[in-house]
Structure formats: C-alpha cells, structure tokens
Amino acid sequence: MKDIFKDVMGITGVHGLMVVTNEGRVLLSRFSPDFRSEGKKLSQINWEPFTIEMNSIKDAELVYDSARFYIKKSETGFLIVIIGDNAPISMVRLNCEILLPQLSKIQPASKRLGNLLRKKIF
Fold first, then answer.
1. Domains of the chain, start order
2. Are the C-beta atoms of residues 12 and 21 closer than 8 Å to each other?
3. Per-run averaged pLDDT (10 residues), the chain, 122 residues
4. Hey, CA dihedral for 74, 4, 106, 26, is it positive or negative?
5. Distance from the Cα of residue 55 to its chain's centroid
C-alpha cells in the first residue's frame, strides 16, 4: 500500500496523525521520527470516551501550550493530526480533505475477511 499520509506528514510542523475508529481503536498511525515515543503512548490510549464526546463534530482544532490537534470526522471514525505551533493549519485542513476519501476505502482486516466469506459462502 502506498503511503497515503505522505502529503500531510510533509507539512512543516506536523508531528503525526492517527485514524481512530468510532469504537476508539487506533486503525492507522504515523509519527515523525522525533515524536515516536509520544506516538506510541498516543496509540495505546483508549480513545472510546473521546469518540463518544466528539461524535457530533465535523472538524475541530484543540490548542494546548505546546501543541495542537486537528480532528476531522469521517464515516469510519476520526482523523487526528498532531501539529506544532508553527504548522499552517490551512494546509493541514486542505490535505485532510484530500485524504478523507482514501481513508473510506480502508477497512479493518476483520471486515474485509467477513466480506470475502459472505461472497464465497452466500
């Protein structure tokens, strides 16, 4: 599979991004080399309470002292981009809009297997 996160990760100031399902599981993630240790911690978090609370949003930007989160809702869950203070948010938003249709094509392995079995059995 080609690297679909290449454009977003190429923006100056982007530390990483994650795709979190509506059930709170991290489906995909990618982090910059200098942010890998924090990325591992973020990937192990139970995101279910977050997804329940953020279920009604389309997109949001959370601003903290030293970092920002850009969150975009998709059909399958949430795209969460971890960005620094100096990242251009307009470029992040534009690239996330381009990325969302590609994310809808990605399905968890269990769903792909179920679809395959349904086609073969029924």
1. 6-121 (3.30.450.30)
2. no
3. 77 90 88 84 86 90 87 89 88 89 65 54 53
4. negative
5. 14
